[in-house]
Amino acid sequence: MKYSVRDAIRYLGDDGFGEQVFRHFIDAMQAGYAKSPSKGTIKEMPGSKTIEYEKDGFRLLDAYLVTPQSSFSGGMTTEWFHDIPVWMMQYFGSYDDDAIPCLKAALKMNYEQRLFFGGRGPEFFTLDGYTYVNNVTENDFFGRSSGEERIFGPTGKLAGWHRHQSLYLVRNPNWKPYRF
């Protein structure tokens, strides 16, 4: 099931902060990896690539590691509010180079529609003979999620995968999870 901003308000509570975190996440991801922005690096982490987005006291950093030795990569997307971490997502796996356009298009579609499905792409997406499938196994909306995405090539052969998990780090004392 996909979730919208309206769902975020219901799930994260009426204090409005969770909605702000979610909206900033979506705005940042619309400007992020799927859009192929210029990337930075972390000096102390050779092989790192970073994409950063700041607005209204929020900061999102998508930092991931790649190696020339394989197609494997892994990273963490973290969101802060005035230097306090409020949300995070971890991911790792491997994609063939020819599967990347499908991956970016799937991610971009969900972010442009302002939908959350494990923080990644939709449940199912196709592009130029490639098929993207996102199997979210745990989805308490923006509060906590986990799953695995896969892309299959035109012949049906696996062209890549990533496991992902996320967690909202802020809990209002009156917070009660809303189960969809």
Give a written overview of the molecule:
Helix 1 (about 5-10) runs antiparallel to helix 2. The protein has one domain (about 5-170). The protein is about 20% helix and about 40% strand. The chain is globular, with a radius of gyration of 16 Å. The protein has helices at about 5-10, 15-30, 100-110; strands at about 50-55, 60-65, 70-80, 85-95, 125, 130-140, 145-150, 160-170. With about 180 residues, the protein is an alpha+beta fold. The termini are close together. A hairpin with a 5-residue loop joins strand 7 and strand 8 (about 160-170). An 8-stranded antiparallel β-sheet has the order 1-2-3-4-8-7-6-5.
Quick take:
This protein is of the alpha+beta class. It has 3 helices and 8 strands; from the N terminus they run ααββββαββββ.
Helix tally equals: 3
Q: Helix proportion of residues, in percent?
A: 10-25%
Summarize the helix and strand pattern as letters. Answer: HHEEEEHEEEE
What is the domain tally? 1
List the helices and strands and how they pair.
Layout: H1 5-12, H2 17-30, E1 48-55, E2 58-66, E3 72-81, E4 84-95, H3 100-112, E5 124-127, E6 130-139, E7 144-152, E8 158-168
Antiparallel strand pairs: 1-2, 2-3, 3-4, 4-8, 5-6, 6-7, 7-8
Helix pairs in contact: 1-2
Keywords:
about 180 residues, 8 strands, globular, eight-stranded antiparallel β-sheet, alpha+beta
